[in-house]
Amino acid sequence: MATFFLLCAAACDPVTGTGSGTPPDPKGFIRVAEATQTAVVTLIAGHPATDNQFNYDGYSDGALVLTVPVGWQLTIQCENHGTVPNSCAVVGDGKATAAVHADWSTPNPQRGLDPGQSASFAFNPAAGSYRIASLVGGNEASGMWADLEVKEGGVPTLTAP
């Protein structure tokens, strides 16, 4: 009986998530329109596919890589499916406490979106390496960030190993 209680308590812990541990194919979270040079990426914060809810689309610790060509407009749709507040913000590195530009994040990224909320933002990123991270206290350190690479040429891609 005690073992059952411990297993149930661990499975119900909001930090551990509820999924099978197999993240979905990232290609399902990006829409690309080459004619207008626009891309829309949906980042589901706390995707239930993994055992750790501090993820985007089921991937954490930078395993999700978004590559965008210079000159393209990128829209990030951030949906919070987790049990705690989460946000999406484009930052320079893991030490950042604010977005690179004020409009490169969901509203109030340090407070975050409550569970069940969503928000989006659009921007034209300059060439460089960035992270998309949740700036809610402790979330990024828990693995809640994706890699964003902005380079010359090509088409936007969203990949994971």
Average pLDDT for all residues: 88
Total DSSP E strands: 9
Instruction: Give, in order, the helices and strands.
Output: HEEEEEEEEE
**Adjacency order of strands in the biggest sheet:** 5-7-8-3-9
Beta percentage is: 25-35%
> CATH homologous superfamily name?
Cupredoxins -  blue copper proteins
Rg over C-alpha atoms, rounded to the nearest angstrom: 16 Å
CATH fold name = Immunoglobulin-like
Helix content: under 10%
The CATH first-level class comes to Mainly Beta
List unreliable stretches of 5+ residues.
Answer: 1-17
| Helix/strand/pairing category | mainly beta
CATH architecture: Sandwich
Q: State the distance separating the first and last CA atoms.
A: 40 Å
Number of domains: 1
- List the total number of helices: 1
Shape: globular
Describe the main β-sheet briefly.
5 strands, mixed
Question: Which key phrases capture this entry?
Answer:
single chain; 161 residues; Immunoglobulin-like; 1 helix; 31% strand; globular
Question: What's the arrangement of secondary structure elements?
Answer:
Elements: H1 2-12, E1 30-33, E2 38-45, E3 65-69, E4 73-80, E5 89-91, E6 118-123, E7 128-133, E8 145-151, E9 157-159
Parallel strand pairs: 2-4, 3-8
Antiparallel strand pairs: 1-2, 3-9, 4-6, 5-7, 7-8
